[in-house]
Amino acid sequence: MIVLGGEIIGEGWNRVIATRDPTAHGEMVAVRDACRRIGNNGLQGCVLYTSGQPCPMCLGAIYWARIERVFYGFGTRDAAGIGFDDHFIYEQLARPAEQRAIPEIPLLRAEALEILEAFAADPGRVRY
Ligand SMILES: Nc1nc2[nH]cnc2c(=O)[nH]1
Predict the structure, then answer these.
(1) Which residues contact 77 (CB under 8 A, 6 or more apart)?
(2) Which residues are part of the catalytic machinery?
(3) Ligand 1 center to residue 25 CA distance, Å?
(4) Structure confidence by residue, pLDDT tens digits, 35-57
(5) Would you state the pLDDT for residue 7?
(6) Contact 30/56 with Cβ under 8 angstroms?
(7) Which part of the chain is the CMP/dCMP-type deaminase domain (predicted)?
(8) d(C-alpha 25, C-alpha 16), whole Å
(9) CB–CB of 85/63 below 8 Å?
(10) pLDDT, tens digit (0-9, with 9 covering 90-100), for 93-113
């Protein structure tokens, strides 16, 4: 759940299998719920309470949402004990991008930079 000033503003639980969505971890569902309810993509000042320590995907969403603090029950090593990959993915991120089980390989940087620079120069750009 996500709490702001003592009030629950978002709730979520794992919906990966139910919705056939690999991103539907409990934390992601809660972040989406809170953002929808408050009508904002930022969750500044909010605290997330979760049974399990967030995986890297969820932690990324937590950072992007600017959540202030996370409280969790069991850790990623505990989750690994029942077959979840959270800890494995953290270990993967500690390796160079090219050496991971799923390598990230730079491609067409100059062309991609043109798109990035055009976006940066767009006066209608909204920062988040
Ligand atoms: N913290 C957390 N870890 C997971 N690993 C797989 N699914 C989940 C989830 O919903 N939450």
Answers:
(1) 87
(2) 27
(3) 5
(4) 999 999 999 999 999 999 999 99
(5) 98
(6) no
(7) 1-84
(8) 6
(9) no
(10) 999 999 999 999 999 999 999
Q: Which of 25, 62, 85, 87 to mutate to test the pocket of ligand 1 (most atoms within 8 A of CB)?
A: 25
* pLDDT for the residue numbered 42: 98
pLDDT recorded at residue 12:
98
Mean pLDDT computed over 11-22: 98
Domains of the chain, earliest start first:
2-121 (3.40.140.10)
pLDDT at 69: 98
| Residues 1/11, Cβ–Cβ less than 8 Å | yes
Q: Write 76-83 long-range contacts (CB < 8 A, 24+).
A: 76/52, 78/52, 79/52, 79/53
Question: Any idea which residue has 């390796």 for tokens?
Answer: 95
Q: Which residue has tokens 């909204």? A: 126
By alpha-carbon position, which residue is closest to atom 9 of ligand 1?
25
